[in-house]
Amino acid sequence: MTDLNKLLTPLFLSEKEIRKIIELIFFSYREFTLGPDEILNKINYGRAHHRVIYFVGKQKNITIKDLLGILKITKQSLSRVLNQLVKEKYILVSIGEDKRTKKLCLTQKGLDLEAKLSKIQIDKIKSIINDAKESDINGFKKILYSMIDEKSKKIFNKLNE
Amino acid sequence: MTDLNKLLTPLFLSEKEIRKIIELIFFSYREFTLGPDEILNKINYGRAHHRVIYFVGKQKNITIKDLLGILKITKQSLSRVLNQLVKEKYILVSIGEDKRTKKLCLTQKGLDLEAKLSKIQIDKIKSIINDAKESDINGFKKILYSMIDEKSKKIFNKLNE
DNA sequence: TTATTTAGGTCAGTCATATTGACTTAATTA
DNA sequence: TAATTAAGTCAATATGACTGACCTAAATAA
Fold it and tell me: How near does any CA of chain A get to the CA of B33, in Å?
């Protein structure tokens, strides 16, 4: 980058400032996932289990296919995690109207774990929101939304219709 | 939560809205790491290599100890990744003034890879910033900063003195 | 000067997440 | 009836991370 360009670049667009954002994303994501990870660890589960429980809780009677579409992992990867959750009765499986499909939903045990895990993250965000200006929260949400790809935007919008 | 509480809770503090934020964080982080991950995959490296290269690039002559403090992983975990990077000449190791310590720095090869990986993320953020209001960016940065723990805040501040 | 702490390294074993590839079954749809 | 779709399974592999035990060498404190 030439000196001229540097002069013409507003501070918030400089590479130095952008690298700060990269670091903040790294540190904040790690911190954000720490709480649930610790609880999951105690019951020999991992973050993948949280994701499955979260989205099954979010969209009751979701099919395997749709869940795979949200998580963007292979069915072999999902299989291991999901089978454990079904075996240990966090998730209940039933046959869909289209008999090729399966419908997943959380049992009471699953709902309890989901609530316990999500509570940590919800509380964290709540406390941040309490100390922040509403305009900052709105900026935060807008930027997050603009960071995601079109397909995920569609999935996100559908989940929150 | 009672109906009364619901009435008293501003929309942006409702659990429903907070869960949207949780989902946005999940989707955006995945999208954010996707580009570098693809490049790393081609040379049989992973995200851990990116982190090491990023922070060694950020703080020239960083010691193993300080790097471990930033990454918050065990030395056994770092060892595998770092040894690969040293063996394949992305990182150069030298002895510190305190002869127990080692100083790490990127070689030209390392600088090139760092630039290539970070460029994807920098460009992504740049394009978002270009389309967004400065106040939204500032809100985004403020909230990210408030999400991280005290220790990471200190590390972040030190990295950007 | 000796004892302790610190920085770094290493060996071994384990677990969780995720992948590719190949193949199967059953149900739906063209 | 043929093709597609949803789901499942077996096997092999890679990556990222952990615990625990143990070691060396240098710096520092008692």
Answer: 10
Helix (H) or strand (E) holding A159: helix A150-159
Span CA (A71) to C1' (C17), Å = 13
* Contact state of A23 with B159 under an 8 Å Cβ cutoff: yes
In one-letter notation, the amino acid at residue A86 is: V
Residue B131: Cβ within 10 Å count: 10
Distance between CA atoms of residues B75 and B72, nearest Å: 9
Domain ranges of chain B: 13-124, 132-161
CA pair distance B52, B70, nearest whole angstrom = 10
Question: What is the token pair recorded at B17?
Answer: 């809205």
The string of pLDDT tens digits covering residues B100-116 is 999 999 999 999 999 99
Give the other-Cβ count within 10 Å of B7's Cβ.
7
List C-alpha distances in Å: B1 to B4, B6, B127: 8, 7, 41
Residues from chain A contacting residue B30 (CB–CB below 8 Å): 72, 152
pLDDT, tens only, B23-74: 999 999 999 999 999 999 999 999 999 999 999 999 999 999 999 999 999 9
Beta strands in chain B (DSSP E): 91-95, 102-106
Distance B39 CA to C28 C1' (A): 40
B13-124 adopts what CATH topology? Arc Repressor Mutant, subunit A (1.10.10)
Please give the protein residue whose CA is closest to the C1' of the nucleotide C18. Answer: A77
Domain A45-159, architecture per CATH: Orthogonal Bundle (1.10)
